[in-house]
């Protein structure tokens, strides 16, 4: 039986907010409703003063929606946001350091100051390479404005919920959740910053991730409020900065580094992506976007340089096909470049390497 938005809104209209005494629909508390082939997702937005105390209301909404005939799964997110304050902005106190996540030994962010430099490609292949080293790995795609992990890992189904917790999907031996799996294609742009932040923090804290050695977060590109809040509210052990070798990208990478330094998140190192191009026909080596800029920037800023990833058609084709190069062809020089970076990252987060399990392409 096909279920539609009206059915869901009607069901939600029966849920009464105990604070206002009116329905959550009437009070405009439901945002970002998505109904796709029986799978329903929405955001319940409450006043920041209520925060997590509104969790029973969210569960009540879930229960109401689950009763609608044809509904296969419900994923909801509770967010508490405040409208931007009228100017002048009050001085913000530094937030307390975030608590760790039970059963997750380390959380690392893969970030870039600029979009399109291959941040997601690096995040996905780094996660798979860490898993090849024997670590238990999770991957959270937090790139609300261009979530590419579903495509790169070939994920289509929505993660199921269990007692208000998300169950990550499994692919190539890692656990993965993407914010993209909860959103309609055109929806990301209408999500306001605070909603994104709350949803992400909830996906991290309410995901059934444990046990994990490392959770890799594919950050949204840039250094705006969303990124800053993640850096402050997620217990990050460190950040990997991805850049291409051009000056413009490096300037943005420097801004990214400054942001992590400001929030006391250690920079684990810089990766230069799309570094060298070797012509598959004649073997000639060329540097389409320049070469070595990220290494120089790292040296100048006193941050580690983690390595170079070549510009290579196989990297793009395998990502597009949902079989990333580290899973599809682990013995190629391109995959080995990711493995070398993963070895350094594992060492920096204090994870000894274990015998590599084999990754099975499903
Ligand atoms: N080393 C590489 N060689 C060839 N193609 C690459 C390489 N790295 C990334 N790409 C391709 O470049 C495009 C952008 O990569 P990706 O989506 O990883 O970038 P991003 O920085 O995460 O982008 P966004 O900021 O939009 O999320 C993709 O088509 C990807 O396959």
TrEMBL record:
Which residues make up the binding site for ATP? 113-120
So which residues are the signal peptide here?
Answer: none
Supply the alphabetized keyword list.
Answer: ATP-binding, Hydrolase, Iron, Iron-sulfur, Metal-binding, Nucleotide-binding
Gene3D superfamilies named in the record: Fe-S cluster assembly (FSCA) (3.30.300.130), P-loop containing nucleotide triphosphate hydrolases (3.40.50.300)
Report any Pfam family annotated for this entry. FeS_assembly_P
Q: Which residues form the MIP18 family-like domain?
A: 5-75
Q: What does this protein do?
A: Binds and transfers iron-sulfur (Fe-S) clusters to target apoproteins. Can hydrolyze ATP.
Assembly with partners or alone: Homodimer.
Similarity-based family: Belongs to the Mrp/NBP35 ATP-binding proteins family. In the N-terminal section; belongs to the MIP18 family.
What HAMAP family does the record point to? Mrp_NBP35
* Protein name (database record): Iron-sulfur cluster carrier protein
Organism source for this protein?
Rhizomicrobium electricum
């Amino acid at each position: 039986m096909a279920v539609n938005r009206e059915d869901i809104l009607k069901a939600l209209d029966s849920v009464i907010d105990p604070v206002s005494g009116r329905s959550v629909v009437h009070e405009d508390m439901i945002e970002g409703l998505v109904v796709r082939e029986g799978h329903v997702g929405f955001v319940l937005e409450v006043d920041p003063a209520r925060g997590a105390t509104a969790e029973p209301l969210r569960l009540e909404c879930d229960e109401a929606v689950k009763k609608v005939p044809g509904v296969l799964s419900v994923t909801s997110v509770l967010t508490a946001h405040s409208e931007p304050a009228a100017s002048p902005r009050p001085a913000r106190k530094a937030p307390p350091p975030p608590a760790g996540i039970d059963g997750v030994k380390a959380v690392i962010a893969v970030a870039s100051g600029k979009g399109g430099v291959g941040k997601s490609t690096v995040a996905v292949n780094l996660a798979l390479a860490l898993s090849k080293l024997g670590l238990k790995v999770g991957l959270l795609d937090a790139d609300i404005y261009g979530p590419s992990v579903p495509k790169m890992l070939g994920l289509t189904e929505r993660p199921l919920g269990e007692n208000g917790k998300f169950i990550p999907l499994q692919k190539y031996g890692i656990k993965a959740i993407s914010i993209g799996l909860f959103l309609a294609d055109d929806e990301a742009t209408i999500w306001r910053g605070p909603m994104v932040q709350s949803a992400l923090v909830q996906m991290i804290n309410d995901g059934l991730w444990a046990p994990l050695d490392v959770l890799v977060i594919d950050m949204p590109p840039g250094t705006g409020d969303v990124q800053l809040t993640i850096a402050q509210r997620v217990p990050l052990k460190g950040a990997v900065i991805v850049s291409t070798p051009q000056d413009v990208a490096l300037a943005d990478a420097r801004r990214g580094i400054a942001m992590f330094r400001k929030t006391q998140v250690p920079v684990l190192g810089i990766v230069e992506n799309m570094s060298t191009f070797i012509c598959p026909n004649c073997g000639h080596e060329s540097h389409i976007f320049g070469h070595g800029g990220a290494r120089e920037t790292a040296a100048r800023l006193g941050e580690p340089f983690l390595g170079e990833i070549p510009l290579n058609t196989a990297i793009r084709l395998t990502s597009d096909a949902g079989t990333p190069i580290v899973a599809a062809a682990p013995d190629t020089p391109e995959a080995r470049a990711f493995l070398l970076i993963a070895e350094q990252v594992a060492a920096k987060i204090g994870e000894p390497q274990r015998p590599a399990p084999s990754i099975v392409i499903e």
